[in-house]
Amino acid sequence: MWYRSSPAELYYKPTPDGIGVMQTSKLEKRCNTFFKELIERGRKARPEVDELPPLRPSRGKACKHRLDDKSSSSSDSDECMDEDGLQGYSDRIMMELQRKQSHPRRLHPEMWFNNTGEMNGGPLCRCSARARRYGMRHGVYAGEETYPKCIPTESNIDKLYHYRITVSPPTNFLIKAPTIIAHDEHEFLFSGFSMFSHYKLAKLPTCKVIRFNIEYTILYVEEPAPQNFSIQELDLFEEYLFYELLELVDLDLGKATETTCSQFHFMPRFVRYLPEGGCEVLSMCEVLKYLIDESGLLIPPDTLEEVHSMDHYKWQKFVDRIKGMIVTYPGKKPCSVRVDQLDRSPPVSKEMKDPNAVKKYYPEIVHFGIRPPQLSYAGNPEYQKAWRYYVKYRHLIANMAKPSYKERQKLAAKEAKLQEMRTQTKMKRDVTVAISSEGFHTTGLMCDVVQHAMLIPVLVRHLRFHKSLDSLEKKIGYVFKKRLLLQTAFTHPSYRENFGTNPDHARNSLTNCGIRQPEYGDRRIHYTRKKGIVTLINIMSRFGKRSETESEIKHNERLEFLGDAVVEFLSSIHLFRMFPGLAEGGLATYRASIVQNQHLAQLAKNIELEQYMLYAHGSDLCRELVMRHAMANCFEALMGALFLDAGLEVTDRVFAMALWHGAPALLDVWNKERLHPLQEQEPLGDRKYIKDFEFLQKLTEFEDSIGVQFKHIRLLARAFTDRSVGFTHLTLGSNQRLEFLGDTVLQLVVSDRLYRHFPDHHEGHLSVNLDYCQAFCNACLFPRLQEFILNQDWNDPKSKLQQCCLTLRSMEGGEPDIPLYKVIECLGPTNTRVYSVGVYFRGTRLAAARGHSIQEAEMNAAELALNSAHGNLTLVTFYTLIYHT
């Protein structure tokens, strides 16, 4: 498909060099008007200093035992009572939510706003001041280049690369009322964004994000750039949309300063498809004109009387045009909201009985929003406690053969209690907000623009991350052939929670301005459950793939599993060669000190891996101890990725570089080639000794069986020499040291095979050990096996009684005697009837019991019969004999 820009000769003219266009004086005036009416309007409405006091860090009071011990551990102080008498992290979140609800410029108590560096319930980052100097989580991208400032009044097309952004699948992006701009008797439909980059984008792994329980793929397609735009127009639109309307105050499009330019610029695409098969893109000057024209008051004061006097048809037509549009009230928090309905009916009150008061009444904007999880039933401690009890009891009932009526009623009562808590007004997740339309301005933008715009921060972080990885590849001296492996190695499992963005900012902006009723996918897309016996059985029952298969698990735990084996192998092979006289125990001690987590974290720090890690901010990962553990895992994952992409030689070089960082002399010692003593004696090979030793002659038969011929067959002989043989000049020792080396070789071979052919298995499933399963059964199952058999917990009382009676059948054959149940009595009306049932065996009544149904009464009678002592009918006696036999 070919593209062209809509004509705009009055606003653009060719640059002197003939490449691109530049603004005319007419367009310059329009840009100034846009800035004054749309951007400066919001700046003037906001005070320079926020009226809300800054976040107050919690100061923990020392507990009594801590005062006695004179201890002041920061990690333990979190468990103590804070200065307001509240305990725990959740209490501090509730305090912060209440603090923000009291903001003097709050648009509505049920609508939430964005503050720089904050979530709804407190600060986004709790890292130390030193940790905030680096890391992508703090907006610091290692090796990021700066670019000279673009000429604002020109398109700078000779410096920029153009890409069209597409989203797949289109669910929740194609809406019934999209943003349409009418121009020159044609309608231009919003179709996404164009991206201008200061550098040519390489072919990178696809950028993915989960929204509305759906995994979206964000793609960029290189195309010829539109003609009619200028950088100043793009900057004005970005500031208006991202900062003034959506309040994405933490958005960073690429490190722009007063002297340098942002890495990326974005342009809205309003297009119309031509009959000839092409596509016409609306010039940016017309987009600014449309936004200026649509920026008037939603309900001007002088039209109030006209609004109330409109007939129903005319009013509904006006409402239909506004419904789904984003309107803004500059200075409020939040300042923008999606209009779901307009209600001009005044409330029933004494003031509204006056006709003049009705004429001055502003219609109300009705908005359907969503409360934050902390304020809904999902974040309520009482609800969470009731939910846990309900789930446990439901699981217990599900594992019963035939639960009683009382047990089922108890489960129903717990479920009814949960439903009652969900329906409470204060705990509902969905909320309806009604706001006076006084002071609101229209924008002309519908929620489809917001849906696309909220994906741009994720794409920008993805591109900046991969650009930063270029510096890492230069540092380690290797360029990955499969970039996805490198991305996976640095992706912590927590990154999937928010994909590097502030989760509350995205949630607030989408709730306030995004699509009203999004189509949701399967909630299980968020679940990455690895624990539990059911999950273990499900995963371990799957066979491996015949060929190497890429895994759908996109974090670094699987690579960490493989990298652990790679690091152990590299450490073992070097130690084996460096210390030819050291026994197996000494080698194992040295290796353990190299591969321990604390040391691997230091190796990661040596090559500055913490600058490239992708993970979500949280109360855990902001702690130094947990962060170091994540760094060690990341280093192992990098070793695994290098092994898969480049092989052992490159992996060994990078591992040595990290191990002996800043110590070139030790690095030379580590990398020095050393031969085994048997190889040093006979550098050209020792197969000439085969004819002299019968033992070596037998080993040639083994070589034939495995299809490998050893150059130094005495090494093979040493591998078969037990330490009980003693020292011989033929092998110069036993096989203990070779056993130490072979253990890591086998671990690497098996780990590599498991990683490549078992794509559904997590790290724990790949490393599961049958010895652990045996130990689990020995500790938990086998000691209770006798009790399990004797009690027959898998059977209901009627089945137990019948089996007991069948054991007493005669040896003569014929039909066996079984217990019979008879209704003895029936009392009460139909809805509360009580039955009495007796159980008989061989003409003798064993027991009688009552129940609200015949089946329940039979169960109770059978249970009573089993518990009663009636000769040989005791089931426990019979199964005791069977067990001991």
TrEMBL record:
> GO molecular-function annotation terms?
ribonuclease III activity; RNA binding
Which Gene Ontology cellular component terms are annotated? Answer: microprocessor complex
Its BP terms in the Gene Ontology are: pre-miRNA processing; primary miRNA processing; rRNA processing
Q: Domain of life of the organism in this record?
A: Eukaryota
Q: Which Pfam families match?
A: dsrm, Helical_CED_Drosha, Ribonucleas_3_3, Ribonuclease_3
UniProt domain DRBM: residue ranges = 796-871
**Keyword Cell cycle recorded:** no
Kindly state which keywords UniProt assigns to this record, in alphabetical order: Endonuclease, Hydrolase, Nuclease, RNA-binding
InterPro entries per record? dsRBD_dom, Helical_CED_Drosha, RNase_III, RNase_III_dom, RNAse_III_DSRM__animal, RNase_III_sf
SUPFAM superfamilies, sorted: dsRNA-binding domain-like (SSF54768), RNase III domain-like (SSF69065)
Disordered: annotated span? 45-83
Query: RNase III domain: which residues?
Result: 469-647, 699-767
Q: Which family does it belong to?
A: Belongs to the ribonuclease III family.
Name of the protein: Ribonuclease 3
> Lineage of the native species?
Eukaryota, Metazoa, Ecdysozoa, Arthropoda, Hexapoda
